[in-house]
Write a structure and sequence with these properties.
2,3-Dihydroxybiphenyl 1,2-Dioxygenase, domain 1
Length: 260
């Protein structure tokens, strides 16, 4: 387990769900992870946070007027200067969907598509630092980008978010890069070359790994709750992992870490 009050620069610090069925999502994630849900906040377009043990762990929002939800999870990387991040990201080839926008006193939000096609957010913390616990049941434990353009992705995240990166041997000769925060500290995320297996027409995408006490039991629960299993539980050097979706189709990973 890792606890923190302030996320390191460049580290994933938040994740939110854009869902076509808010009520069903609250019921599903409440049953699976034990999350509670705040009331939707009209001043933020109905956005609200899921709570784990009373602390914010993830965000959620339904349809935005004529913009229909895509049933996807999005991650946010921490920045200490959202305006500068927009400038550097645009120059590095990102498509800026929403430039730096203050969210009351909570922080400053940016939404973009990275040069390889992956949806991405950036967050400059104010009173809201993002999630403060990692690696416990119902909390995030890892973040991973699957992309067809591995080299360009690595260069983008090094340039825009100051990552220190290290290539590690991947299974089946698949390139894999591990990132550390800008201080060279803890490992914060991975980038996988998915060009050999990402389906045609599927954009690059970020995945959130949520820690659970028992992956196999959680996968059974996902199915019982109306979700789908995309990849059955399997062992890895880092723990036992599965890929699932919620009942609306939003995909995510489940992980029981090797050291848990």
């Amino acid at each position: 387990m890792t606890t923190r009050n302030t996320p390191p620069a460049g580290a994933p610090c938040w994740a939110d769900l854009w869902t076509s069925d808010v009520a069903a999502s609250c019921a599903f994630y409440g049953a699976l992870f034990g999350w509670d849900a705040e009331d939707p906040q009209p001043e933020f377009g109905g956005y609200f946070s899921f709570l784990r043990d009373g602390e914010r762990i993830a965000g959620c929002m339904g349809d935005m007027g004529d913009m229909k939800a895509t049933d996807t999870w999005k991650i946010y990387l921490c920045t200490d200067d959202a305006v500068k991040t927009v400038e550097v990201a645009r120059n590095a080839g990102a498509d800026i969907i929403a430039p730096a926008m203050p969210v009351a006193d909570l922080g400053v939000q940016v939404v973009m598509i990275d040069p390889t096609g992956a949806d991405l957010g950036a967050w400059q913390p104010g009173t809201h630092p993002g999630f403060t616990v990692l690696g416990e049941h119902g909390a995030p434990v890892w973040f991973e980008l699957h992309t067809r353009d591995h080299a360009r992705a690595v260069d983008f995240y090094r340039t825009v978010f100051g990552w220190d990166t290290e290539e590690i041997p991947g299974e089946k000769q698949i390139a894999y890069t591990v990132a550390r925060d800008s201080s060279g500290g803890e490992q914060i995320a991975g980038i996988m070359d998915a060009s050999s297996f990402l389906p045609v027409g599927t954009p690059s995408e970020w995945s959130v790994y949520w820690e659970v006490d028992d992956v196999d039991s959680s996968v059974e629960q996902v199915s019982a709750l109306g979700g789908s299993v995309l990849m059955e539980p399997e062992d890895s050097p880092y723990g036992r992992i599965a890929t699932v979706t919620d009942p609306m189709g939003a995909s995510f990973k489940l992980c029981t870490s090797a050291d848990s």
